[in-house]
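Example record

Each entry pairs one chain with its bound ligand, NAP.
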Amino acid sequence: MIVVTGATGNVGRPLTLALAEGGQQVTAVSRHAAQLPDGVRHMAADLTVPTGLEPALAGAKALFLLLSGDLHAATARPADIIGQAEAAGVRRVVLLSTQGVATRPFGATRIAVRAVEDALRESSLEWAILRPGGFASNALWWAESVRTQRLVAAPFGDVGVPIIDPVDIAEAAAACLLEDRHAGGTYELTGPQVITPRQQAEAISAALGSPVQFHDLTRDEAKAAMARSMPAELAEDTLTILGSPNPAELRISPDVQRILGRAPHPFAAWAARNTAAFR
Ligand SMILES: NC(=O)c1ccc[n+]([C@@H]2O[C@H](COP(=O)([O-])OP(=O)(O)OC[C@H]3O[C@@H](n4cnc5c(N)ncnc54)[C@H](OP(=O)(O)O)[C@@H]3O)[C@@H](O)[C@H]2O)c1
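Structure tokens for the complex follow.
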């Protein structure tokens, strides 16, 4: 049995589906129940509760570990999950980390994720670490304004990064969970090309078959909007990456091709698959 945390999110949902379709027994973990593929067991667990994952780990051979935005909750001790997986007899853990651990190693979030990476590397478990850059699904931020006004409002409209389709992350995770050759691998996952917010708006417009306007926000306007759903420090940090990506954040990684034997999906493919969110 394979435990998938974050199973109802952008990455976990297609991962759960891919594993279930491949005949794997899957336990899907999230706090809230959701519709899951046939045969998949759901277990409610909160990763900010120190022993929250232990019941789900009983009998598991592998774990996909996705640490949610609650990484900084006062009660969260995410590195402890590695020891819990060892104690439960789990053989292999695939950790969803972040590119920033390598490209901007300072900042509270990346230091916290790095600590989990280190705990995993020092454990007796087989492991693989996925370090994705920005997700294509971050464009869902614009879903409401596209639906209601056919408008994308974003900062740094002409500054791009090679964002990645969460389906590519999910398929890479499935390969790392199932194939021995990925043991000890640390993979950086990016999309196939640098794409700007303005170009993303154009791709959404093409997928909808309907014009979508682009409006440049100032950094302060963007920060005020983001601070409604994330800590101000994280909003500031995210804006710095989006506005001034460093060379490492602009690099197109070969790792999706190495893992999956195919190129990563372009943003247009993600937009075409997700038109329902923007209609
Ligand atoms: N977005 C980016 O550009 C980006 C870039 C690099 C790395 N990442 C990393 O990717 C991860 C987010 O992946 P995603 O987009 O697939 O997530 P997502 O769509 O936001 O979904 C989060 C998943 O985690 C579950 N969850 C949230 N809080 C939880 C908790 N306290 N305990 C247990 N489960 C919890 C959610 O279900 P419930 O709410 O029902 O619990 C849901 O299944 C984060 O670790 C982030 O650091 C993101």
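Residues 6-12, 30-32, 45-48, 66-68, 70, 96, 98, 132, 134-135, 137-138, 166 surround NAP (CB under 6 Å).
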